[in-house]
Amino acid sequence: MDLGIKGRTALVCASTSGLGEATARALGAEGTNVVVSGRRAELAESIAAELPSAIGVGVDLTAPDGSTTLLDAATSAFGEIDILVLNGPGPRPATAATLDTESIVGAVHNLLVVQQRLVAAVLSGMRERRWGRILSIASSGVVEPLPHLALSNIGRSALAAYLKSLATDVASDGVTVNLLLPGRIATDRTEALDSGVAQRTGRPASEVRAAAERAIPAGRYGSPAEFGAVAAFLCGSPASYLTGSAVRCDGGLVGAL
After folding, report:
1. Structural domain harbouring 233
2. What are the backbone angles phi and psi of residue 135, rounded to the nearest 5°?
3. HSE of 50, CA atoms in CB hemisphere, 13 A
4. What is the pTM for the complete model shown?
5. Gap between the Cα atoms of 26 and 28, Å rounded
6. Section 165-184 average pLDDT
7. N or C: which end of the chain has fewer CB within 10 A?
8. Tens of pLDDT, residues 66-109
9. pLDDT digits 0-9 by tens, 7-51
10. CB 138 within 8 A of CB 159
């Protein structure tokens, strides 16, 4: 399938590893100009060098000037942004009963405020050109809160509510806004969470993973490449009538429709 995005420019946040990297690689394979970004500048540049048309930008998006730094580098290299993929590291594991106000404010800032700044910066151009894609690499916690990940559940749910509202506002301008919710994808983040469970319960990490896999109807963790392929489709022209949706890539894990 031709996704119709060859020559478009995609800015992919936090794309030096995991789901962000997989998305950047999938978009690059479709012929887009890709802006790879992350705190590790050398790694961002290394990944970009492997793509047909890309730059790597080292940036901390949670810093006050992070969004401006990234956007300036992106537009200097490729011009206007057509595809914005929102992504960021998940907050530390925690239960709701243990949270303090400062932690909640930090989670909302990193998972909502930082993302909204980027959206605000690119949205008017997308609407004027009557074509744009905004995709959030989110979490299944927005539809089924995850145990021990209360900060992620709170921050990502706030972002989901904002993006759902935005999707309605800009649908008639040719701009789609969607969320892609991973289940258990084999990334470093998932491995770290499994290790955390192993430490809390005193079980081997291999046993924790085996138990998690048994809970997935597909019987296995997904691969980053599988996730990236879905992300690229949602950013493509064939998905132009799909907006305001939270699409799950989870092997059937979440029980809700």
Report:
1. 9-183+223-249
2. -130, 130
3. 13
4. 0.95
5. 5
6. 97
7. C
8. 999 999 999 999 999 999 999 998 899 999 999 999 999 999 99
9. 999 999 999 999 999 999 999 999 999 999 999 999 999 999 999
10. yes
Angle at 224 between CA 88 and CA 184, to 5 degrees: 80
CB-count burial class (<10 Å; 0-12, 13-18, 19+) for 231? buried
Per-residue tokens: 209: 């993973």
DSSP letter string, the chain: ---S-TT-EEEETT-SSHHHHHHHHHHHHTT-EEEEEES-HHHHHHHHHTSSSEEEEE--TTSTTHHHHHHHHHHHHH-S-SEEEE--PPPPPB-GGG--HHHHHHHHIIIIIHHHHHHHHHHHHHHHHT-EEEEEE--GGGTSPPTTBHHHHHHHHHHHHHHHHHHHHHGGGTEEEEEEEE-SB-SHHHHHHHHHHHHHHT--HHHHHHHHHHTSTTSSPBPHHHHHHHHHHHTSGGGTT--S-EEEESTT-S---
Inter-residue contact 183 to 254 (CB < 8 Å): yes
**Residue 256, in any domain of the structure:** no
Between CA 85 and CA 52 the distance in angstroms is 19
How many other CB atoms are found less than 10 A from the CB of residue 25? 21
Query: Do residues 41 and 141 both lie within one domain?
Result: yes
In a domain, 207, yes or no: yes
- C-alpha to C-alpha distance for 23 and 12, rounded to whole angstroms: 8
* Structural domains counted in the chain: 2
Domain identity same for 207 and 154:
no
